[in-house]
TrEMBL record:
This is Glyoxylase-like metal-dependent hydrolase (Beta-lactamase superfamily II). Residues 24-193 form the Metallo-beta-lactamase domain. It comes from the Bacteria. PANTHER family: ENDORIBONUCLEASE LACTB2 (PTHR23131). InterPro entries: Metallo-B-lactamas (IPR001279), RibonucZ/Hydroxyglut_hydro (IPR036866), Sec-metab_biosynth-thioest (IPR050662). The lineage of its organism: Bacteria, Bacillati, Bacillota, Bacilli, Bacillales. Coiled coil: none annotated.
């Protein structure tokens, strides 16, 4: 676990799982705003970090466990507004609610509410604009601080050259969202798994170019009658570490299928 700062942003770097030290999660805290809450498996370490932060507002980028795992603890320990994509509000509201029987014995002080993102989140020094960016998940939101050029990107960025997708990931949505982001001014991407990416705008542009050209190639192969297996062998012959580590939850097959299924070819 490591604490660092980038400009006015406090950053907590932690392993996504105690057994997977290679993969990291970065938690960001800036002027009272906490971006995502981290995985519950790191509960003890994360609580230690949170105790030194005065959380007033919580911005959820999307509902995967490593981003909302500690949400209930945060909701019960800080009088904070919690913002999420509209579609995620019912599930997250359920998650933060303490069952009445637990409430009798727990020492929690608050039950903060989950509400849909407003047009902007303001603090004394900054302003954060939520931008809907489906792709990694349908409920994904990035946060832009326009005056400082920061983009808190949750899991939207991670790498400009992905070869594996989760089942729900959509290359068509990624491309639309990347085109949308290209109209905003930002320099620094603050990624939940890669940390600070100083040339973030350029890297997002690379990701857009890569996804467009890769989708085009995959569709051509598919239309020529190549099977998924043959396309994988041709496009991504090397084994991918994340595919092995996630026991296939992230896979090249999901990526390939997303390329041609969504265009109806
Ligand atoms: Zn995710």
């Amino acid at each position: 676990m490591k604490k660092v700062n980038y400009e006015d942003i406090n950053i907590q770097k932690i392993a996504v799982h105690p057994l997977y030290q290679m993969m990291k999660v970065y938690l960001y805290f800036v002027d009272g705003v906490l971006v995502d809450t981290g995985p519950s498996v790191q509960r003890r370490n994360i609580i230690r970090a949170f105790r030194s932060w005065d959380v007033r507002q919580v911005a959820i980028t999307h509902c995967h466990e490593d981003h909302v795992g500690m949400l209930r603890w945060v909701a019960n320990n800080f009088p904070a507004n919690i913002y999420s994509h509209t579609t995620a509000v019912p599930a997250l509201s359920k998650q933060v609610k303490i069952p009445w029987y637990q409430g009798l014995f727990s020492s929690h002080q608050f039950e903060s509410k989950v509400i849909p993102y407003p047009d902007s989140i303001r603090t004394s020094k900054f302003e954060f604009l939520p931008i809907e960016t489906p792709g990694h998940s349908s409920d994904h939101v990035c946060l832009l601080e326009p005056n400082r050029g920061w983009l808190f990107s949750g899991d939207f960025y991670i790498t400009p050259y992905p070869k594996v997708f989760l089942k729900g990931e959509s290359i068509a949505s990624y491309i639309d969202s990347l085109q949308k982001l290209s109209h905003y001014n930002f320099n620094t991407v603050l990624c939940a798994h890669e940390g600070v990416v100083p040339n973030g705008k350029e890297m997002m542009k690379r990701k857009l170019d890569y996804l467009q050209s890769t989708r085009h190639k995959v569709i051509q192969l598919h239309q020529k009658g190549y099977t998924d297996k043959e396309i994988i062998k041709y496009m991504f012959p090397e084994k991918v570490k994340l595919e092995l580590m996630s026991f296939g939850s992230f896979s090249r097959l999901n990526f390939i299928r997303s390329c041609y299924q969504e265009t109806g070819t």
